[in-house]
Design goal:
Elements lengths: L2 H9 L3 E5 L8 H11 L3 E5 L5 E2 L2 E2 L12 E5 L3 H14 L3 E4 L8 H5 L5 E4 L3 H7 L2
Parallel strand pairs: 1-2, 1-5, 5-6, 6-7
Antiparallel strand pairs: 3-4
Length: 132
C-alpha cells in the first residue's frame, strides 16, 4: 500500500483518538485534536491526567476505546511511544499514526507488520492542510 492509500485508509476510520491530547493550547496534542474537530472528524482526546480538553470529556486510556472503529494518532513522548504502540497492537488497533518526532527506532519495525497501517515520519497537521 502506498502512502496516499495509507493516509486515506487512516482518515476513513470513523473515529480518531488523539493519544497525548493536551490541555495546553500551544502543544501539538491540543492543536491536532482541535484541527481534527474543525475538519469534522469524530476526534477523541486521550489523556489519563485530564478530565476534559476543549470542552470534551477525556478518555483515560486506549483500552477504553473500540479498536474496530477507532484510529490512533500518537502525540506522545518518545519514551512512551513503544509501550503505547505495543498496547494498541495487543488491543487490536490497526490504524496508527505516530506523529513526527514521537517515533522511535522501533516504529519502522512495528510498521513492517502487513496487518497494520502505521504511518510515521509525516506530520498529520501538514497532511491535513494538503487534503481537500
Amino acid at each position: 500500500m502506498n502512502l496516499k492509500e495509507k493516509i486515506t485508509q487512516f482518515f476513513e476510520t470513523p473515529k480518531i483518538a488523539v493519544v497525548g491530547a493536551s490541555r495546553n493550547t500551544s502543544k501539538y496534542g491540543n492543536i491536532i485534536y482541535r484541527r481534527l474537530k474543525e475538519k469534522g472528524y469524530h476526534a477523541i482526546p486521550v489523556n489519563p491526567f485530564a478530565d476534559e480538553i476543549d470542552g470534551d470529556i477525556c478518555t483515560p486510556s486506549i483500552a477504553d476505546l473500540n479498536p474496530q472503529d477507532t484510529a490512533l494518532i500518537l502525540v506522545t513522548h518518545q519514551k512512551d511511544t513503544d509501550k503505547i504502540t505495543e498496547q494498541a497492537i495487543k488491543l487490536g488497533f490497526t490504524q496508527i499514526w505516530v506523529q513526527t518526532d514521537c517515533d522511535t527506532e522501533n516504529t519502522p519495525i512495528f510498521a513492517q507488520n502487513k496487518l497494520l497501517n502505521i504511518i510515521y515520519k509525516y506530520c498529520i497537521l501538514v497532511i491535513m492542510t494538503q487534503m481537500k
